[in-house]
Amino acid sequence: MNTLEDYIAHHAVHQPDKLAIVCGSDRCTYADLNARIEARAGQIPTPPSAPFPVPLRATPTIDFLVTYFALHRLGLVAAPLERDMPDDTFRQVSDFMAANTCPTGTADVLYTTGTTGRSKGVMISHRTILADAENLIAGQGFSPDLTFVVNGPLNHIGSLSKVYPVMLLGATLIIVDGLKDLDAFFSAFTSPVSPKVPEATEATVAPEAPVPHKFATFLVPASIRILLQLAPDRLAALADRIDFIETGAAAMAQADMEALCRLLPHSRLYNTYASTETGIICTHNFNAATVPDASPAAPTPGCLGRPMPHSRVFITPDGLIACVGDTLMTGYLGDPDRTATVLRDGVLYTADAGTIDEEGRLHLQGRKDDVINVGGFKVAPTEVEDAAMAFETVSDCICIAVDHKITGKALKLLVALKPSATLNKRALALHLKSRLEAYKVPMLYEQVDSIHRTFNGKLDRKHYSTL
Known about the structure:
The chain is of the alpha/beta class. The chain is built from 13 helices and 24 strands.
């Protein structure tokens, strides 16, 4: 089978009544899903040349996935875009796509802004989709009896990539519209999910719907922090239901990692190295209590584990992470020059600084461009932020560089505090001094209402670049 849609068609024959996707009151089995895909494919006019991407808004619905799969089945390239993208922007992106073709075998064009702010259309092949799926199955133990809760935008690799192993294995997907409604999110882990059964007759009685015990989800660190602050008890109540949680897209504070391990002592908790360009590369279970023969230890921030079967990583002479394997992008749509700056001879060169330890595990040290030079000393702001997040009154923070007449640059820490807390600069500075070298302790501190983050929970450093 060469595409994800081939697997869906296979499941429609061999397990037609297995529940495939749930979204609110809308539910479909694999037989239903395959039939919807076929019907939708018959409604889509095939353009003169198939390699042109077809734009569509990525709504958190079964209908979106039906259209997404139908485009693939027709041999077309799907280009899921942000659902709230302004109409003018949508038209501009659509016009750009209409003027640029994709290589044979391309499945998707996924748009990402990265750290430059310039929008890039990343071309993903069908081979990449299956390689990502198989990496996740091998690295995190996806299984056919798993129910995976997707709560993030389906136009980004973080959530969309979880659709891949679920559909490949014939497992069940539940779609939730973010964390705006915490009741809906938590209900997804407790509602009964069962195959479609025929209506009861005089001779038969429909069996009671079983509740599966294996649930999993993907949460960016910012979402995890929301749950830890607003609903720790509700999260702990799911300890026996959550098989695993994956996080990624941004650095996760050690304090949050430790809190999550305490609340979910039996759940595997994965930190993953992935991006739209690289695909799903490495993963690491930081909950030592669930790792056979592992000695208890505090989670290690920045540890992203070993490469999964379809991937390989190495560190360049400049200390940056480079990736090799079937999960890599094909290139940037309509921009061969930019493609050549990062993808050469089958190697994807990132701007992420990292190391590989003696056990072959990748450790992320932050973005090369984020490093701050303070009087000749190099400081990774993520290290400062991680230490600050362990301070009891800090809710969120970002470490930035400001001009200084002697050292050239100085560190400034912007902090958002927990409700009713006030900023004690001296206590915070002493806390940081106990955890960091002296040159890494910020000189300046400022309390703010909130910290700007991107759509996927990353600190929005560009927002503070002019301060």
